[in-house]
Amino acid sequence: MGGKESSTCPSASRSSTTVPVTHNVRHYRLERPKGYRFTPGQATEVSIDKEGWQDKKRPFTFTGLPEDDTLEFTIKSYFDHSGVTNQLWSLGAGDRLLLRDVWGTIQYRGTGTFIAGGAGVTPFIAILRHLNATGKIGGNRLIVSNQTEKDIILREEFEAMKGLEVVWTVTADPKSRLEQERIDGDFLKRHVPDFGGNFYLCGPDDMVKDLRSLLDEAGADVANVTWEK
């Protein structure tokens, strides 16, 4: 996820709850600092308020609704190295995180197709939740590729959003009944009836680069394609 220069005076926010989402993803819900605001799709840089971790900043997207009393992040932890996300997994109620300035990532520009790889779905969570809460979810489409079914983030919640078309595909789960293909040009042509709409992309850099090329080849207008830069 891209970023920008962040505030030199971070706001401290105390963790209220952590909620499991998948085997390696959790919701982290925090006290909202006074006057701290964001719009769906925006992010901030976060560090852990512990000795040795305050300067280790990582960008995370807000996944709660902007009017909620608390702030929420939905974060995948990587246990193969001792980094910030691994350290976050050990936190609980009462631990503190440092939040910096809010900055824009993916902003909603109108009805379209959201395409994500794995944890790349997180910038779309607040956007789709907000559209669902305001009765504007209809006509949007969510396509997500994961390795296995157990990796799917918020599957039940997305599938319960009436009016949102959801397509899951897995690439390393031969027993799954879901689609088992990588998202290529043929896949897009089967699942996207109109390339004249908006597209929102998030995932590994190589995947996003490939998707941009595929959409261009399919006739999508580059001006209608939004991705994390």
From TrEMBL:
PROSITE patterns for this protein: FAD_FR (PS51384)
Sequence ranges assigned to domain FAD-binding FR-type in this UniProt record: 8-109
Residue ranges, compositional bias (Low complexity): 1-18
Organism encoding this protein: Devosia oryzisoli
Gene3D superfamilies assigned to the protein according to its UniProt record, in alphabetical order: Nucleotide-binding domain of ferredoxin-NADP reductase (FNR) module, Translation factors
Region of interest: Disordered: 1-22
GO MF annotation, one: oxidoreductase activity
InterPro entries: FAD-bd_FR_type, FNR_nucleotide-bd, MRET, OxRdtase_FAD/NAD-bd, Riboflavin_synthase-like_b-brl
Signal peptide (residue range): none
Protein name: Flavodoxin reductase
Top-rank taxon, per record: Bacteria
SUPFAM superfamilies: Ferredoxin reductase-like, C-terminal NADP-linked domain, Riboflavin synthase domain-like
